[in-house]
Amino acid sequence: MTARTLSRTLRLALLALCLLAGGCGLLQADRQMKRLDAAVYFTGIVETENAARGPIVVVLYKLDGPPEPVFLDVVPRTRGVYHLAAPPGRYGILAFEDVERDLRYRAGEPATLYEGVALGMEAVDQPPSAASGLGRIRIPAAPPAKVLPAVFDEAYEALVRRRNEVFGASAAIDEGRFAPEQVRAGLFQPLGFIAEGRSGLFLLEPYDPQRIPVIFVHGIGGSPRDWAHVIDKLDRTRFQPWVFFYPSGVSIGLSALLLNNALDELHHRHGFATSIVVAHSMGGLVVRGALNIVLREGRTPPVHHVVTISTPWLGHAAARWADIGPTRVPGSWLDMAPDSAFLSDLMVVPRPADIRYTLFFGYGGASRWVSGNNDGTVSLQSMLPAGIQSRADFVFGFDEDHASILRSDEMVDKLMQRLRAEADPLPASR
Questions:
Q1: DSSP 288-318
Q2: Beta-carbon neighbour count of residue 271 at 10 Å?
Q3: CATH homologous superfamily for 160-423?
Q4: 3-class SS at 358?
Q5: Per-residue pLDDT tens for 306-364?
Q6: Alpha carbon of 115 to those of 74, 107, 133: distances in Å?
Q7: Among 306, 316, 266, which residue's Cα sits nearest to residue 286?
Q8: pTM (2 decimals)?
Q9: At what angle do helices 282-296 and 252-270 cross, to 10 degrees?
Q10: Options 2.60.120, 2.60.40, 2.30.29, 1.10.3470; CATH of 39-152
Q11: CA–CA separation, 108 vs 274, rounded Å?
């Protein structure tokens, strides 16, 4: 391949991402995206020796100078997945069984401590090594004999407040947290987006145990505002709308983990028996990834019906070239390459038979940048692979493009029919 051909291919890849993201801020974002490499993300398993009497809290705190908490995660069961993210440096990790259920460590609660953990750039997007002992954290039944570090200060209280603000907090579609500038920050400065507590699962009205939650998940470069027309038509006597807002620039796997953690927390808090998830574009990949996390842990998802709209199950051909050249692109776009590790692994876990699946797609586009028939952004080949169609309970197409399908009255009417058909006679809460 000549340099001229390679440059043209890279431009096509970047243009395709701009189409998916609804704008072309990518070409000015090289410096911002390179900052992603300066952060460390890892995940592992945390568990208690005996059955937990409350959720497990995992706290990451700085060791250079006075202990300063920088990241907080909660696992509401005896064993589960934790995730942490921070700039490179020396850290400590404190994990404790939150018997008092207030997210604060109390004397006498079982706990374990790691100190001197060095996080470097080589660990970005990789699980911790076995040598570090961080892949699996085990909390003994007995309280620790040594005095634990004083990390529970004002900074820790701020982490707790931030967490409570984004997991189940009230929100409105038109409020500033979902504004275009926040969307751009999530796409091009995603780790800062997470650290500042802008990602979360939000309730558009107070929780009602008598109504089934419908969780809306946007695509790359999107926000809950994309769902305004759909939510406006939702039957509020039977359903309650929740919206998941995530930084679409991080890897799809991390977004899936954020969704899993948020849904897990609200299920633990409210005890709803089931829910419905509706996802657009890349959001469908995020949802499937989140379900895989639940299934691999041997848990039963609190979901009985999934609807995906215009999801690129086979990725986007232009994404193959996104990591070539000096321009740094979002990790989610790298995962969109048809042969990426994420997409290859996505369908390994079988979907449970008791989770119903509706597949919607658009065929009203004619982009010359996308091969074959397409919706203007994603090819029909990617949206309609045989393996996905064969597993769907309902498949329907609309003469709409990738964006207009969410504003289509025909699509919304069909979606509402599907929600009603799959809702009866399911209970809303246990």
A1: HHHHHHHHHTTPPPS-SEEEEES--TT--GG
A2: 11
A3: Alpha/Beta hydrolase fold, catalytic domain (3.40.50.1820)
A4: strand
A5: 999 999 999 987 666 555 544 455 667 788 888 888 899 898 888 888 899 999 999 98
A6: 19, 19, 11
A7: 306
A8: 0.82
A9: 60
A10: 2.60.40
A11: 36
